[in-house]
């Protein structure tokens, strides 16, 4: 296979993995209904939690994170002289696949769990910082979106501080995408109407 095809293959495979809507698959498979008709309508773990099925929410979070991990591992296994670049390309594909899955008319999740998985596999130190900031943000604010957004912003800062310039640039782009997908949450936060963890979405 010509070398120029590898980046496109990594991007395509990453996108296909990322676009698997585990939140919707799990809620339907276990009789919790169509997650798009519940709460905020989002397919991520936070909205799955609003079904009252904590196990399904935890499984959604783990599987959404593993999508990113799998995409990077596949890219890492590809025979190419530019392996590290392929990993970043596959990571971007998985992330935007989750945000804009072709199977759901490009209406996907907000990317926090998938971003966690990407951080852990690309640089475990960044992933650890991401997880701690995420948990800390939620513990202090009791608002899921706050934890996710703060963690996303912390990732490129952590990568840059640790000397991973290329990774920090990618994570900056992904963090901005996370903030973009949280636009409605930001408006509710400013209005004081964003639901806290355990409350139903308005």
Describe this structure in words.
The protein has 202 residues and is mostly helical. The protein is 70% helix and 0% strand. The protein has one domain (5-191). It contains ten helices and no strands. It is globular and about 50 Å long. 50% of the residues are buried.
Structural class: mainly alpha
**Helix and strand string, N-terminal first?**
HHHHHHHHHH
Beta-strand proportion: under 5%
SS summary, helix count: 10
Tell me about the largest β-sheet: none
Q: What separation lies between the terminal Cα atoms?
A: 51 Å
Helix content: 55-70%
Rg result? 17 Å
Number of strand segments: 0
Stretches where pLDDT falls below 50 for ≥5 residues?
none
Quick check: average pLDDT?
90
Basic shape: globular
Number of domains: 1
Secondary structure layout:
Layout: H1 5-18, H2 22-29, H3 45-49, H4 54-77, H5 83-99, H6 112-122, H7 124-141, H8 144-161, H9 165-181, H10 183-191
Helix pairs in contact: 1-4, 1-5, 2-4, 4-5, 4-6, 5-6, 5-9, 6-7, 6-8, 6-9, 7-8, 8-9
Task: Provide key terms for this protein.
202 residues, mainly alpha, 10 helices, 70% helix
